[in-house]
Amino acid sequence: MASKDHTKPNILFILSDDQGPWAMRCAGNSELITPNLDRLALTGIHFSNFFCASPVCSPARATLLTGRIPSQHGVHDWIADGDMGADNTIGWLKQEKIIEYLKGMTGYTDILAAHGWKCGLSGKWHLGDSRKPQKSFESWYVHQCGGAAYYGAPMIRDGKVINEERYITDVITDEGLAYMNKMLENENPFYLGVHYTAPHAPWQNNNHPEHYLSMYENCPFESVPPLKNDDLRDQLKGYYASITAMDANIGRLVDWLEEKGLRENTLIIFTSDNGFCFGHHGVVGKGNATRPVNMYEESVKVPAIFSHPGRIPMNAVTDALVSAYDFMPTLLDYVQLPFPEGESLPGKSFKRLLLGDSMKERDHLVVYDEYGPVRMIREKEWKYVHRYPYGPHELYDILNDPGERVNLIDAEEQQDTVAAMKAKLEHWFVKYVDPHLDGTHEAVTGEGQIGLAGTAGKGQPAFK
Question: Is this structure's pTM higher than 0.85?
């Protein structure tokens, strides 16, 4: 009946799409209805400073899976070509090629599978060659590309192109539940990735059930900066409704584990690929919502909850700085598996935080982000953003200016801080970047990736 061995827990990894760190009630948003995310937070630990590796979906997802930063795995922007080629059924997306972007790279699911875990995926993949099961997943129900309509969603089931007429958030959950039910037939631990397309656009035009939309009909939306017009208010209503619909489906997954007696031997992780601004800084979108691309806190931070009753402390919150590139070493450490590439990759395990132990060393750590030629270093007190080669650059006093309203890059009294942070940033990236895949050499604009980056691209255009 799945795994009952506490040394080999089942793992339920829930990944949302474009969810800001502010977009949960347990994160302080009193307008959002998220009882099941709140339930997970009450039974686990909430990370208030969890950073994605890049503020856009495909590179962020690739880092979670491989532990490599974008300049090590070569996915620098959202994938606009390479998922399905001309066979995709998304009207607005014109693709020509099929590319396995992570070919030859080890994902943590490969290591889990090699040590007995059965691995299934339901939902968004968006890392190329969508028809082909990759990274040791034995069950493969995935979105053809990235975002699309919630009704009639373009999906892949058993290698076949289909359009799901039902609400895709419900269907992704149904497929996940079916996989877990199948796992009851053996004693192996399972890993299930449930990758929702929510709350990614579209939000309007009847893309979400009226039941959820009506919950926000009279919402004043004081949880975000003032919205400029009624169209944005309507979009935010859809954004919130999509999160509440996803939350209800997360409740179905947790209920199933409890009903089957597996909750105490299942690690549940909830996070998002990248963050999102909804009026923050005058922006609606993520890292590619501006030109040049941005590294705002709302774009680079994501919600993150880890819950495992009996092992992870209950109702805990930590403000430790952790990153998506720390995720793979942490997960493998948590289930006591080796991390063969660990010495060459930047991530460090924060397992001790999950177990409720103090990690003083993390108080002095910094996190790094990149989006093509834009790079960021973030300490507890300061954030520095460097845009290669010519800028503009940014420096923010996060302690006194958490809203990043005053750019101190030209302040005479802060030039020593600028120099010190730039030196740290460059030293770190020189240490870990694969020169064949260095994002500072790529013409990433936020319009999408259409081919292999660096020398692997053999001179062909890699970005729109």
Answer: yes
